[in-house]
Design brief:
about 400 residues; Purple Acid Phosphatase, chain A, domain 2; six-stranded mixed β-sheet; seven-stranded mixed β-sheet; 13 helices
């Protein structure tokens, strides 16, 4: 009798814990919307004197107290930021309970009125939700401009079979295409300009701000060469000369067929190549000052792309990108306390799948996004977010 009671109590306990986890992961956390405030610190490239160079060569820290990160941040956060950006990503907007709550949350952001609004892909999953998306976004205002790039879900309406097979091995094509032209026209009607491998220019005070919008690299549509050629900036990346002689991961021309990079073929090849490994270490070397020195004086090159892709970032570093905004990862979607995300969903390192990171050449900000795919509508310890980015310039 005691054994039976014990078994029943264990069963009830397991059932209660399972129910609690389900309610948290499927009903609470996906609706736990946050507005994250993120501060980014930049300055023009520091010109060192001969004395400073000599001291640095002898590994002596010669920074003046006024140039220290703490001094800079204390001074700048007391004033108005040089630039404010609202970063949104990964709506996966649907007409369901989650979609309704997301709709209302985005509407609540209309009072922010930042300088720029960036949306980094996966806005919808099906053509039927275009009008709903327009109703949600049309109230958002930005004083200088609103820009978006597209993600794989904006291009293709995945079937359940394609979604689950994709978790094991990335498919090379998706059968159902969305009306991308219709989506772009709808976004244009709200004042949102879709950047498809395109560069646009702004001026804020004495600072020139260039916004580069790239197509999603995971479906081989990113074309950096074309974006800079159209803008007149010209130049050719050194990336291809270093390693690839055949068709490159970043194609010279956008690929219209719905083919996706299979597995990690290019990454495996790259990491086996000594010079490529050295280039990766150089590009992704951490900047411990947490202050980014602009690659060009009084010019900020901001890149928008959906998928955080290490190969793409190497090429962007060669183009002197200063800040890169992306989404796609949903922050890992499932995170564990003290451990963090378990998966990134792309070739970026798991520890970089959400948040702000200072590297030697650029700053990376990966959003946790606001939605989830309709076949995986859960989150754990990974609340959805919109991000208000405040850039302080020295």
């Amino acid at each position: 009798m005691n054994l039976l009671i014990t078994i029943i109590l264990i069963f009830i306990g397991v059932a209660a814990i399972s129910a609690a986890l389900y309610l948290y992961a499927f009903r609470y956390e996906p609706l736990n919307f946050k507005l994250s405030e993120v501060k980014i610190y930049i300055r023009n490239k520091v010109k060192k004197t001969e004395k400073q160079v000599s001291i640095l060569q002898n590994n002596i820290d010669c920074r003046d107290e006024e140039d220290s990160p703490a001094s800079f941040k204390s001074e700048k956060t007391a004033g108005k930021p040089h630039l404010e950006i609202l970063h949104l990503s990964d709506f996966h907007l649907r007409k369901d309970r989650k979609g309704y709550m997301l709709f209302n949350f985005v509407k609540s952001l209309k009072s922010l009125n930042p300088d720029l609004i960036f949306i980094t892909g996966d806005l919808i999953e099906k053509n039927e939700n275009f009008s709903y998306l327009v109703d949600m976004l049309q109230c958002l205002k930005a004083s200088a401009g609103k820009y978006a790039v597209l993600g794989v879900h904006d291009y293709y309406n995945k079937t359940p079979a394609e979604f689950f097979k994709n978790m094991i091995k990335r498919k090379k094509e998706y059968r159902r295409e969305n009306d991308v032209t219709g989506l772009i026209l709808k976004l244009n009607s709200t004042g949102i300009k879709v950047l498809r491998n395109k560069l646009v220019f702004h001026k804020f005070g004495d600072t020139k701000v260039e916004v580069l919008g790239l197509e999603d690299s995971i479906i081989r549509k990113a074309d950096i060469q074309s974006a800079f050629s159209r803008s007149g900036s010209g130049g050719c990346s050194n990336l291809k000369n270093m390693l690839f002689t055949k068709t490159d991961f970043i194609s010279q021309k956008p690929i219209s067929s719905p083919k996706v990079v299979s597995g990690n073929d290019f990454n495996d090849l790259a990491f086996k190549h000594g010079r490529w490994k050295a280039r990766y270490r150089e590009v992704f070397e951490k900047n411990y000052t947490n202050i980014h020195s602009l690659n060009n004086e009084n010019r900020i090159l901001i890149c928008l792309t959906h998928t955080p892709d290490m190969d793409l970032f190497v090429e962007l570093a060669d183009k002197d990108a200063d800040i890169i905004f992306c989404g796609h990862t949903h922050g890992g979607q499932v995170r564990l306390p003290l451990i963090g995300a378990l998966l990134s969903g792309c070739n970026i390192k798991v520890r970089h799948c959400s948040g702000l990171f200072y590297f030697k050449k650029f700053i990376l900000y990966t959003s946790r996004g606001l939605g989830e795919g309709r076949y995986s509508p859960f989150r754990f310890y990974c609340s959805p977010e919109a991000s208000l980015i405040k850039i302080y310039k020295q």
